[in-house]
Amino acid sequence: MPKRYDLLVIGSGTAAVGAATRMREAGWTVAVVDFRPYGGTCALRGCDPKKMLIAGAEAVDHVRRMQNKGVIGNSKIDWPQLMAFKRAFTDPVPQRMEHTLAEKGIDTYHERARFTGPNTVQLEGGQALEAKFVLLAVGAEPVTLNIPGEEHLVTNEGFLSLESLPARIALVGGGYIAAEFSHIAARAGASVTVLQHADRMLTQFDPDVVGWLMETFQRLRIDVRTATKVTAIEKTAHEFRVYATSAGVDITVDADLVVHAAGRAPDFGPLDLVAAEVATTHGRLELNGFLQSISNPAIYAAGDAAQAGPPLTPVASHDAKVVVANLLDGNHQRPNYDGVPSVAFTIPPIARVGLTDVRARERGLKFRMNSKKASNWFTAQQAAEPVYGFKVLVDEDSDRILGAHLVGPKVDEVINIFALAIRHGLTAKDLRATMFAYPTGASVIGYML
Questions:
Q1: How many angstroms from the chain centroid is the CA of residue 106?
Q2: What is the spatial distance between Cα 203 and Cα 398, in angstroms, rounded to a whole number?
Q3: Cross-strand pairs, 372
Q4: Kind and range of the H or E element at 86?
Q5: Per-residue pLDDT tens digits for 248-293
Q6: Can you give the pLDDT at residue 267?
Q7: CA 354, 359, 360, 365 torsion: positive or negative?
Q8: Strand partners, 342
Q9: What's the rounded Cα separation, in Å, for the pair 406 and 379?
Q10: pLDDT confidence of residue 444
Q11: How far apart, in Å, are the Cα atoms of 126 and each of 2, 31, 121, 132?
């Protein structure tokens, strides 16, 4: 006989745990299933451990920038110690999370789950589970590249677990992972090459602002090769050789480590969604506006599994709240992804929220745009950081913020002010009238408008 629950959650990341705990507090019987350590990508294999490494890289970079400006002495990264600093955060997460779930009366299982029917699953050990509703919150995994030697690629998880840093690193891809890891590795002393299929890095961000950021890549001597398609990876006796084509020319790059940075997507294969009667199109779940499967109303999805909003941790948390509201009171709440900020934690960081000027023109909007590379502003000079600039779009008719695109010191925090304005309809006049603490990163917002 299967063990029965009101809600079965597959996954143990932000969306999964958020939904599980809220539904249990509402009196539902709940179980969580995950074959990986509990905590999800952000806490264990992504955002948080990455930021722990960036803390060391930022400290070293700041000292170097302040040389001959009142700071003396050399600084460098001790990779094993930096990894130990990272593990001090990540290692306790699974046990702490399981303890929290147990305290709330949520059952936990440590196996892969496979659907055997519309609302039944079987675990690897043979245990059968049945639930009135199932929430898919499985997160994302590196996409398959379908190239020879793909097995030699190290994932983001592998990079974040390196006990020592190889001398030469090649990254396949040019998005968040490639940008952030290349900055960490280069400041730790590695020689870094980025192989990006697109014509530029960080295609999710404004091209002009990315262009300013690329000055930092050049200063770090990161070899960025755009319009380059990786075709194969070969393991030799002492290294890896990456084969690629660029402008019709075959090239090779030798490296001691090759990192997969070419995108992520949910891995639904092991779940057997066909048995669950869950329809998909090109690897995406077919969901209605309430994050519910169109073909099987017992199934909901959230976060990366839903692929409804940007693949970001706050979106996963938001999706979980939407699903909970719809489970408790029937479908009535839809996700709202207006004003979701996004940051690539390079050094300095690059951030965006809202529309680019290209998208705003495509929509036929009338807007004014203020754009400037502002290396001479105090925020940049105080940090001895030459890369600093912004592009802000304001609607001509309503005076509301349409988009903000920033690069430089503190912009990972400043972008949240613009996100607040977009999500809650604040105007440029409202922001200019706000008295921000001075001198801080936010105190120059008025001049950006």
A1: 28
A2: 29
A3: 390
A4: helix 79-90
A5: 999 999 999 999 999 999 989 999 999 999 999 999 999 999 999 9
A6: 87
A7: negative
A8: 352
A9: 13
A10: 96
A11: 10, 16, 10, 20
Give the pair of three-digit tokens for residue 257: 């480590």
Return the structure tokens found at 120: 């039944």
- How do strand 284-285 and strand 280-281 relate by DSSP bridges? antiparallel
Phi then psi dihedrals of residue 280, to 5 deg: -135, 155
Nearest C-alpha neighbor of 343 from the set 419, 232, 443: 419
Cα distance between residue 407 and residue 213, in whole Å:
7
Nearest C-alpha neighbor of 94 from the set 20, 12, 174, 191: 12
Could you write out the three-class secondary structure of 129-198?
EEEEEEEECCCCEECCCCCCCHHHCECHHHHCCCCCCCCEEEEECCCHHHHHHHHHHHHCCCEEEEECCC
Residue 223: partners with Cβ closer than 8 Å, 6 or more residues away: 191, 192, 193, 194
Average pLDDT of the residues in 84-98: 96
Q: Which residues pair with 232 in a beta bridge?
A: 243
Cα distance between residue 57 and residue 220, in whole Å: 12
Q: How high is the pLDDT of residue 182? A: 98
Cα separation, 189 vs 360, in Å, equals 41
326 band by pLDDT with thresholds 50, 70 and 90: very high
- Looking at the chain, the whole-number percentage of residues with pLDDT higher than 90 is 98
Q: Which residues of 279-302 are buried (b: 16+ CB within 10 A; e: fewer)?
A: eeeeebbebeebbbbebbebbbbb
CA proximity to 410, closest of 439, 376, 435: 439
pLDDT score, position 437: 96
- Confidence class for position 74, pLDDT limits 50, 70, 90: confident
Beta pairing class for 401-407 and 350-354: antiparallel
